[in-house]
Amino acid sequence: MPIKEDTISVLKQFDIGDNFSYLPAMPKASVLVPLLVKDGELYTLMTLRSKELRSNAGEVCFPGGKRDPSDRDDVETALREAEEEIGLPPDHVQVVCTLFPIINKRGLLVTPVVGFIEESFCPRPNPAEVSAVFTVPLDFFASEKDHFATHGAAGMMIPLHSFYYVDPDTGSQYHIWGLTAMVVIVVATLALRKKPEFDIGFDSEDPLPFFQQVLQRRLSKL
């Protein structure tokens, strides 16, 4: 089976459906995790936030943002934000699944939406929000080589992961950490069906119960 179709089949098994419909009303956000196939290998597209932004300025992240009242669901939020930030038309994204939400450091319930885009997509970053767009082999996030972790961070049930990636096309180095690193590790683990070389803190074959526990613990402290 071609790698794209195989990956879609695998990831669909982890779609959350309405498993989290019980959650209380709280501020929500979504990110789009764009996957693509390049030279027979899975890649993901990431962005560097503008240094002019009020929050998370200059950090690596996925396209995404807060839900608008007009958004029907998490998918629409992720697709709308991706179009606003990097010029990715919603109908150019093959949405695969919605993964379990994670509460970020600002108390937003962030839901990752995974979808495939074409390798030929040419980003048109909005300079007010995005200063760079780059792609990373998904397998990079399963390797110990450029990975660092802090264990036992205050209030954390899982390691705080960090990666340093040098883009071979530009020579630019990017620091990928925090929630973005956690999301991409989860996607890489599931999509590649490969346990990373480092401690991830959750069951690589069935991460949902662990992240439900993390979510409930965070909710109890809000």
Task: Provide structural commentary.
By secondary structure, this protein is an alpha+beta fold. It contains four helices and eleven strands, in the order αββββαβββββββαα. The chain has helices spanning 3-12, 74-86, 178-192, 208-220; strands at residues 28-38, 41-49, 60-61, 64-66, 94-98, 102-103, 109-116, 130-137, 147-150, 160-166, 173-177. The strands form two sheets. Strands 1, 2, 3, 4, 5, 6, 7 and 8 form an eight-stranded mixed beta sheet that branches. The protein has a three-stranded antiparallel beta sheet with strand order 9-10-11. A hairpin with a 5-residue loop joins strand 6 (102-103) and strand 7. Helix 1 crosses helix 3. The protein is globular, with a radius of gyration of 16 Å. The model has no long low-confidence stretch (mean pLDDT 90).
Q: What sort of overall outline do the alpha carbons produce when their principal axes are compared?
A: globular
Rg of Cα set: 16 Å
Strand content: 25-35%
Which series of helices and strands comes N to C?
HEEEEHEEEEEEEHH
Largest sheet: 8 strands, mixed
Q: Ranges with pLDDT <50 over ≥5 residues?
A: none
How many β-strand runs? 11
Rounded mean pLDDT is 90
* Tally of helical segments: 4
End-to-end distance:
45 Å
Structural class: alpha+beta
Proportion of helical residues: 10-25%
Subcellular location: Peroxisome
Domain Nudix hydrolase: 26-158
GO molecular function: coenzyme A diphosphatase activity; metal ion binding; RNA binding
Cofactor: Mn(2+); Mg(2+)
